[in-house]
Design brief:
heterotrimer; A: 337 residues; alpha/beta; Rossmann fold; 7-stranded mixed β-sheet; 5-stranded mixed β-sheet; 11 helices; 14 strands; 19% strand; globular; B: 349 residues; alpha+beta; Tumour Suppressor Smad4; 2 domains; 7-stranded antiparallel β-sheet; 5-stranded parallel β-sheet; 18 strands; elongated
Chain lengths: 337, 349, 328
């Protein structure tokens, strides 16, 4: 069937195929090529972690490096989108959203509504998130809950190479502004990916593991950690259903609720900070719409309410691991009034 | 001499007009104007000028000098010697951020008895200052590269020369020469120019500058130097007239004229200009403006609009401003030993 | 005539159109000022009266290829770029017939079909966006120019400075218009702009920066003409600083205790409409009767716009949830 490529390569391939298919697709960001103005090679980096490598030479004039001016170039991507382009702009680390958030949440997100349906803003903003590389507090956050909160934005978080390619393709073709979250610890993950172009619709979660005892709702890198926990728990006779949300906005409520109706027990696993997170969002959804099915209170497994620490031991304690997920599962399965 | 007073007026708005866009006119930072004033103040003090009147502005020039004067006083401690003259800021009147500010400042300096007035700016600033200076010696000091009339000179040197004129150490006959002047008149409206008057077929004053020779039908020059930039360069190559010559020169401009001159009419702008009917201008005679309607530009800036039936004229006058001749002043200073003194050994008889 | 002269010489029709637009803006704003005081208009309005020459002088050089982005004080730019006055008035009244179907309001009036990327409630929100439309024009080869209007307050916002740099780095067909009306809300620009002249910042980005009398339509039109030609021809961006003043407060309801009497002086001595009328009648380009006719037509059109707006339907509950996304 499909050859195996990495998450990084899958995104690169989606970009290349879409740029081939549609000349209005352009790429911009800091060092998306690299080497601009410098005496050595052009396309020296192809993105700080190499995601956009090769596009600069393959599509001359359509991969634009930028100065370190997020509000200007993210805003420019948004403006260009209103003018018939399909820009894919990179906000290198989502931690940098602070310097350009206005352009995203007050401009791009709101044009269609504020202008009475008369604007179309098909911009994709790719951004890296997540801890695990010892990149410390200002380069390791998740922050997708902040974007999920904003009406007018779509927020998508592929967990696998297959999803990454399909969702990037969908994001580019989508006529709404899309925040495309790439977990930095997943770039080297390999997986089967079809060579041809394909899309994955937004608002459709993926049941990556079926099971009748507990529903684990999760997203991003935590999908893999949850599967690891599920494997351990299976050995103890607990069958977990693992649902990869894939997109937090739009959110596939039905898949979650259907699963909860079957299992009656829910653990939500979210790498983001605990307050006002996807964990709390899903918990509220389940409590409101599947209360009758619940056999136990909802358990949330999240990072602590702290900035991301630097030191190895601390960061490893910060990130939810399979053991903590398993403990949470045992809590809900062992719960009685 | 104790009562030698000098004035300095600086235009904070010079150098920000459309010439920065349509030609490569220089950008001259406000900070540099403030620096020039400070260099001049040091020079004034060195040659015995004890009191300087300084125009005030909202562009940061006088504010910078004010702060610098404060720092000097703080460093010098008690006693009068800060190395600078006493600086009096001409305050107390509303600043309108127009040419009126320059006129006001110069008038106040004249009334207060200034013996020399240094003005920092371009041709426009010099023109405006000259219109108010009367017989007081003027030293127009250039800020920027696109000027013809003002002196292009390091500010310290200009300060020394102006100071020596203010104290009377160098006699006026040597120090100062009277410039020529052009007067353009439309009915009872008149404007003066120190270098050139051009007739433009543009309808409106608008952005003022003149940079397209196709819009010019006539030029009148008080002087036309072969090494000048600007409209006078058209005649500067064809029929040069020195600043000291008693006459001026005028010509008609037409794209199809057989005589074509490659003229640097603005910084970065060297263009062919067609010239005919070159004629000397005698002082006092009224030369008619041919165009039916348009705008008369003085020293490169559109100023006087005229409509059909108004019949503007241009006259060369010999009663322009009295301007400090910096090289002559410092040469005289060398001859007279004004900056020389003998070192006396203490205790010798 | 050279290309330059042809480009800048204004025909009778163009002069009449410019006067009509300036007069429309003035009447629109004066009327909104009066109507707002009755309490019928929801939310905030920020009026442009006094500044007409800037919007009309600049936009008079633009065509269908070009885009502008405006500020919270956007009515003038909207009108100058051809947004329908009736739809604008209805929008200000929050009606379904408004430019944005009542969902945007005064600060968010936009018409992308006319190249008007919107008034903007965020100070400094516009400049990055026009870097984008300018980039699109450059990549598509349309020859279009994009113009960012911002105020003295907006000139200090990081987004504006970043955008100027980016536009110069990418050599975009862009124009930055700093409308320095002397105040950012209640704070004087002579205090908040450290260099005193916003135009002086341009040199730091490697583009020309010039100052223009914002009350003089002809000066604005001429300067903008040159800057736009430069941008279209691939010469890159320019910064033009308009110096003038606004006749009303920052927002309607502002008591303006921070001001002296400059508005009286401006209305009497510097007013752009008065000066325009004086000039064009002096030259004979237009007759007073022509101008009077425009005044009467504009007054009637504004009256009609207000009447229509007051009679128009409000949005319904169904409108609340529509147009968040193209497809969710």
């Amino acid at each position: 069937m499909a050859r195996s490529i990495t998450y990084r390569e899958a995104i690169n391939e989606a970009l290349a195929q879409e740029m081939e298919r549609d000349e209005t697709v352009i790429v911009m960001g800091e060092d998306n090529a690299g080497g601009e103005g410098a005496p050595g090679d052009q396309d020296a980096w192809g993105g700080v972690l190499g995601v956009t490598k090769g596009l600069y030479h393959k599509f001359p004039g359509r991969v634009l490096d930028t100065p370190i001016s997020e509000s200007a170039f993210i805003g420019a991507a948004i403006g260009a989108a209103t003018a018939g382009m399909r820009p894919v702009a990179e906000l290198m680390f989502v931690d940098f959203m602070g310097v350009c958030f206005d352009q995203i949440y007050n401009q791009a997100a709101k044009f269609r509504y504020m202008f009475g349906g008369k604007a179309v803003t098909p911009v994709v903003i790719r951004t890296m998130y997540g801890a695990g590389l010892r990149a410390a507090a200002q380069h390791s956050q998740c922050l997708y809950p902040l974007f999920t909160h904003i009406p007018g934005l779509k927020v998508v978080l592929p967990a696998t190479p297959y999803d990454a390619k399909g969702m990037m393709t969908q994001a580019i073709r989508d006529d709404d502004p899309v925040m495309f979250f790439e977990h930095k610890a997943l770039y080297d993950l390999s997986g089967p990916v079809p060579e041809e172009g394909y899309t994955l619709p937004f608002g459709e979660a993926n049941v990556v593991r079926e099971g009748g005892d507990v529903t684990i709702v999760t997203l991003g890198r935590m999908v893999h950690t949850s599967l690891e926990a599920a494997g351990q728990l299976a050995a103890d006779g607990v069958q977990c259903e693992v649902i990869d949300l894939r997109t937090t906005s739009p959110l596939d409520e039905d898949t979650v609720l259907e699963s909860v109706e079957g299992t009656g027990r829910v653990v939500v696993v979210d790498e983001a900070h605990p307050r006002c997170s996807i964990a709390t969002d899903i918990s509220a959804l389940v409590a409101q719409k599947a209360f009758g099915s619940l056999q136990a209170p909802i358990e949330m497994v999240t990072a602590p309410h702290t900035p991301v620490p630097f030191s190895n031991t601390l960061e490893d304690l910060y990130i939810p691991d399979a053991q903590r997920i398993a403990n949470a599962v045992k809590t809900v399965t062992g719960w009685s009034r | 001499m104790g009562d030698a007073i000098a004035g300095i007026v600086a235009n904070p708005l010079s150098g920000r007009d459309i010439r920065r866009l349509v030609t490569q006119a220089s950008v001259f930072p406000t900070a540099e104007k403030a620096n020039m004033i400070q260099r001049m103040l040091t020079a004034f003090a060195a040659v015995g000028v004890h009191r300087v009147l300084l125009s005030t502005d909202l562009g940061g020039i006088s504010a910078a000098v004010f702060r610098a004067a404060g720092r000097r006083r703080a460093q010098a401690g008690p006693g009068p010697d800060t190395g600078w003259p006493e600086v009096e800021f001409l305050d107390g009147r509303p600043i309108r951020q127009t040419a009126e500010d320059t006129v006001d400042a110069v008038r106040r300096m004249v009334t207060a008895g200034a013996r020399v007035i240094v003005c920092l700016g371009g041709d426009g600033t010099a023109r405006v200052a000259a219109s108010a200076a009367g017989d007081v010696a003027l030293l127009p000091l250039s800020t920027g590269t696109n000027n013809v009339f003002p002196v292009v000179r390091e500010a310290t040197i200009a300060g020394l020369a102006a100071g020596l004129v203010a104290t009377g150490a160098v006699p006026a006959g040597v120090a100062v020469t009277r410039a020529k002047l052009l007067e353009a008149r439309v009915g009872d409206r008149a404007e003066t120019a120190l270098v050139d008057v051009a007739v433009s077929t543009e309808r409106h004053v608008a952005a003022r500058a003149v940079w397209d020779p196709a819009t010019v039908t006539q030029v009148f020059c008080a002087f036309a130097e072969p090494d000048a930039v600007g409209l006078s360069s058209i005649l500067g190559q064809l029929s040069p007239v020195a600043r000291g010559d008693p006459h001026g020169v005028t010509a008609r401009i037409a794209a199809d004229a057989p005589e074509q001159v490659l003229a640097p009419i603005a910084p970065g702008l060297v263009v062919p200009v067609g010239v005919r009917d070159v004629e000397q201008m005698r002082p006092g005679a009224a030369y008619p403006v041919d165009a039916r309607a348009g705008v008369i530009a003085v020293d490169g800036e559109r100023e006087l609009t005229f409509e059909p039936g108004e019949h503007p004229t241009v006259r060369l006058r010999t009663d322009g401003p009295r301007c400090v001749d910096v090289p002559a002043v410092l040469a005289a200073s060398a001859r007279l030993g004004l900056l020389r003194h003998q070192l006396r050994r203490v205790g010798s008889t | 005539m050279t290309d330059t002269m042809e480009r800048r010489a204004l025909t009778r029709e163009q002069l009449l159109a410019a006067y009509r637009q300036m007069r429309t803006i003035r009447e629109f704003e004066e009327r909104v000022h009066r109507e707002f005081a009755t309490g019928e208009i929801p939310g905030f309005v920020h009026l442009y009266a006094g500044e007409e020459a800037s919007a009309v002088g600049v936009c008079g050089n633009l065509d269908g290829r070009d885009t502008i982005a405006s500020t919270h004080r956007g009515h003038g730019h909207c009108i100058a770029k051809g947004v329908d006055v009736g739809e604008m008035m209805a929008e200000i009244y929050g009606r379904q017939t408004g430019s944005c179907h009542g969902k945007g309001g005064s600060m968010h009036i936009a018409d992308l079909s006319k190249g008007m990327l919107g008034a903007n409630g965020i100070v400094g929100g516009g400049p990055p966006l026009i870097c984008g439309t300018a980039l699109a024009a450059k990549l598509k080869g349309t020859g279009g120019v994009s113009v960012a209007f911002f105020g003295d307050g907006g000139s200090n916002q990081g987004t504006t400075l970043e955008s100027m740099n980016l536009a110069c780095v990418w050599n975009l067909p862009a124009l930055f218009i700093a409308e320095n009306n002397g105040y950012a809300e209640s704070t004087a620009s002579s205090w908040s702009v450290a260099s005193d002249n916003i135009a002086d910042r341009a040199a730091g980005f490697g583009m020309p920066g010039i100052i223009v009398d914002g009350f003089d339509f002809f000066a604005v039109h001429e300067a903008a003409s040159e800057a736009i030609a430069r941008a279209r021809g691939g010469g890159g961006p320019t910064l033009i600083e308009m110096k003038f003043t606004r006749y009303f407060g920052h927002f309607e309801g502002d008591q303006q205790t921070y001001r002296a009497d400059e508005v009286e002086h401006a209305r009497a001595e510097l007013d752009c409409l008065k000066r325009f009328a004086t000039r064009v009648t002096e030259t004979g380009e237009l007759a007073q009767a022509d101008l009077d006719a425009v005044d009467a037509e504009v007054a009637a059109a504004i009256d009609q716009a207000v009447d229509d707006a007051k009679a128009a339907p409000l949005p319904t509950e169904a409108d609340l949830l529509t147009d968040v996304y193209v497809r969710y």
